[in-house]
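Why do we bother with holo predictions? Because pocket geometry can differ from the apo form. Keep that in mind while you read this record for NAP.
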Amino acid sequence: MKDIVLNNGISIPRIGFGTYKATTEDGYRIILDAINAGYRHLDTAALYENEEDVGRAVRESGIPREEFFITSKLNRNYLGYENTKKEFDKSIKKLGIDHIDLYLMHWPRPDFGSSDFDDWEELDRESWRAMEELLKAGKIRAIGVSNFLPHHLDNLLQTAEIIPAVNQLELHPGYLQKEAVDYCREKGIAIEAWSPMGRARVLKDPLLSDLAAKYGVSAARICLSFCLQSGFIILPKSTHIDRMKDNLNALDTVISDEDMKKICSMPETGWSGEHPDRETIKP
Ligand SMILES: NC(=O)c1ccc[n+]([C@@H]2O[C@H](COP(=O)([O-])OP(=O)(O)OC[C@H]3O[C@@H](n4cnc5c(N)ncnc54)[C@H](OP(=O)(O)O)[C@@H]3O)[C@@H](O)[C@H]2O)c1
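The structure, written out:
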């Protein structure tokens, strides 16, 4: 199955195209290439500064808007009720569309070191209230979060009327965030894997290379198929058309239970160093 159904009944393609670092004229071309390769689920964010490129590529593809699933994200430095409404309006204008399919809070806290860093609990709850209103007004089809660990979700759920539909987390072989994943599964929150290939850092891992040879596919494909078989929605990014197409075929490879277990027991590898509650550690 190419789609899954979120906890509010809407369908989402299990493979989306990640657009981080696809910016400027080149960004537009990359996104249009991805659409032509077959992607209909596009993952952007205010932070990526390419919402205009995403909107332009969608329009110029000639494919009806309804065939796309478009995600954008609220910048972590603009949390709070009023900010959320203003930031959402900016995103929708830049995208040039009348609704966003999925809108996420990008991170639960402002940037490390910012003056609001310690005020996140109230800011998150207020952002969520604004997002719930935007959802009820029909401007968003599903709302969710990103990089939320269980304690961030516990805080949100104290006042939330709507349970997040999605939590987008860094997930790939070598970084599996089991506690957050188990929490989301228990609450019916769908899980999206960002950097599902560990931004290419994990592709030379010996176990993944061995499995790639065994299954006759690339190590990238092993990462993506592993994430899909774990039940995650995946958001691979590539600037190369052949890789875009190969990544889109990740549902075709079936990894055995025994090999899935081996990947699950890999030591921590390829983590980006980004953590919602701490300063980023450079990998
Ligand atoms: N919510 C968040 O906080 C957050 C954070 C980071 C990312 N994201 C989302 O997740 C998306 C994906 O993450 P990402 O871009 O960091 O990492 P990624 O998709 O895991 O890795 C991208 C890297 O892998 C390479 N690659 C892609 N396909 C390949 C293949 N088949 N074989 C070999 N190498 C391949 C790409 O190189 P080429 O481009 O040269 O092919 C690029 O260097 C982002 O674009 C963004 O939408 C979200």
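The first strand starts at residue 3 and ends at 5.
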